[in-house]
Amino acid sequence: MNPGAVIASSLFFLLTTFPVQAASVRTATVAELAFVVEESAPATVVSYDHSLLSAQIEGRVQEVPVRVGDKVAQGQTLVKLECSDYQLAQSQASSALSALDARLVLARQQLQRAEKLVKQRNASEELRDQRRAELRALQAERRSAVAAVDNAKLRVSRCDIHAPFSGMVTERPAMLGSLASIGTPLVKVLSDALPELSVQIPPKLLASLKNAEEPYFLSEKTRYPVTLRVELPLINTQTRTREVRMRFTAKPALTGASGRLVWRNHQQQIPAQYAVKREGVMGVMMWHQGKAKFLALPDALEGQALRVELPADTELIIEGQHSVQDGEAIERLESADVAAPAE
């Protein structure tokens, strides 16, 4: 007999006489394996208004009635600049306007006389046209004079620097007797309006933040509860993150404080040790009616916890998962105790 035929016959006898034993595995439910993790992202407390007020005119600092730490009301005077030159210019502009008004009165009277004489045929139309032109020229001069008066008043109003909002003085660069030019910093005021939390968050975590129940800002070992106010519709091209603004729900942290926004991600996750890889794709092995079933998790990263969306009673293979293939018959051993995963 052909030796090859003999060997094949023997193997057939063995396979039919002694069936191949199914692989043995142990399983655990998703409810036993899943855990919730805390996510975090860098955050900074910001204020909408922390304004550095500068001089808009040139002048010597005459008075600074506030100090660093003083609380100020909206409209309160913070710095006074020496203003006599601008007040004199305003007076001169007002006098020039008054002189023009007097000339305008005379010009109107002269035009009225000229029109009357033209009707009586005692004056030429040329004289009337001349009087009209003189009146129009004076009216144009008056508009210019009015603008000069308004400009002088504006400069005088800028001699005093007022608080644009209620708040607290945080800096006072202005010094008595110093000469301020346009743009010279004089005083800095922080608004007493509630600050907000600015957070830079990866886009993939935005959905979990929206569903978070009790997010908080952690800074210097202190927790400040916050709630989502708005997400900005743009991605930072350098950090590839999105900015969200959070509102403090209790006592706010100090403006400028930095720390991290922390929240619990309620999406189910299981430890990375139960992951398997098939044909280059990460996933998990499930027990399903006596057979192994591979569930691909394309977004999974090696060495990191696996995010899954499965019913709580789904059974995952936790021992022997690396040696079985999709669709292979398996024997489930008595489930071993599963240690509670660390959050």
Structure notes:
By secondary structure, the chain is α+β, with helices and mostly antiparallel strands. The protein has 4 domains: 21-36 and 270-332, Beta Barrel (conserved putative lor/sdh protein from methanococcus maripaludis s2 fold); 38-49 and 193-266, Beta Barrel (Elongation Factor Tu (Ef-tu), domain 3), CATH 2.40.30; 55-81 and 160-192, OB fold (Dihydrolipoamide Acetyltransferase, E2P) (Beta Barrel), CATH 2.40.50; 84-158. Helix content is 27%, strand content 36%. The chain has helices at 3-17, 30-33, 84-119, 125-157, 206-211; strands spanning 23-29, 35-46, 50-54, 59-63, 71-72, 77-81, 160-162, 167-171, 179-180, 185-191, 196-201, 216-219, 222-235, 242-248, 258-270, 276-278, 281-288, 291-296, 306-307, 315-319, 330-332. A 6-stranded antiparallel β-barrel has the order 2-11-14-13-12-15. Strands 3-10-8-5 form a 4-stranded antiparallel β-sheet, with no helix packed on it. Strand 12 (216-219) and strand 13 form a beta hairpin. Mean pLDDT is 87; it is low at 11-15.
CATH architecture classification name of the largest domain? Beta Barrel
Find the CATH topology of the largest domain. Elongation Factor Tu (Ef-tu), domain 3
The class by helix and strand makeup works out as alpha+beta
Low-confidence runs of at least 5 consecutive residues:
11-15
Residue share in helix: 25-40%
**Count of strand segments:** 21
Query: What is the CATH superfamily classification of the largest domain?
Result: Efflux pump adaptor protein, beta barrel domain
Strand line-up of the largest beta sheet: 2-11-14-13-12-15
- Kindly state the mean pLDDT as a whole number? 87
Q: H/E element string?
A: HEHEEEEEHHEEEEEHEEEEEEEEEE
Q: Report the principal-axis shape.
A: elongated
- The overall number of domains is 4
Tally of alpha and pi helices: 5
CATH class bucket of the largest domain: Mainly Beta
First-last Cα distance: 67 Å
Radius of gyration: 42 Å
Describe the main β-sheet briefly.
6 strands, antiparallel, barrel
Task: Indicate the proportion of strand residues.
Answer: 35-45%
